Amino acid sequence: MYYNIVFETNRLIFRLFTMEDAALIYELNSDPDVVRYTLDPMHSLQQAQDVLEKVILPQYALYNHGRWAVHEKSNLNFIGWCGLKCRPELNEIDLGYRFKKESWGKGFATEAAFASLEYGFSKLELKRIMGRALPENLASISVLEKCGMQYLGEEVIEGLLHKTYEKTALLHL
Prior knowledge:
Layout: E1 5-8, E2 12-15, H1 22-29, H2 45-63, E3 67-72, E4 78-87, E5 92-99, H3 108-122, E6 128-133, H4 138-146, E7 150-157, E8 160-168, H5 169-172
Parallel strand pairs: 5-6
Antiparallel strand pairs: 1-2, 2-3, 3-4, 4-5, 6-8, 7-8
Helix pairs in contact: 1-2, 3-4
């Protein structure tokens, strides 16, 4: 059984990552299909450790949220991550998700994204959460739309054109 559980849904468990999860991060991000639209392939276990140490874990301490490890309740298998990331350079909270290929098409991303939004608004009392995807990432765009996020338009972030969505606490009620 896993510890550091943040919350659960009917089918999923969300927990805090730890440094012991580097192999899970590496495996997820070394699949070219998984990182096709994220443009951040992982080349080593050390790179996965660096991402945990420098990106994922500090978010928990700084903001009391971040990207959470997601496991299926039925078998406890790690299937990916989902969660809320503070992006101070953009003055926003970003909803993100990434799942193993074998879990695609089962509604896990939508369930996880919806639960993360709910947690952000109800438990963290956030006022606004953003979501972005490259225009060709139709599956990710579909998840954002199924979660009731409002399309704002296209914008260039980190040199790439993204479709941008938002959900606010007022729209969430």
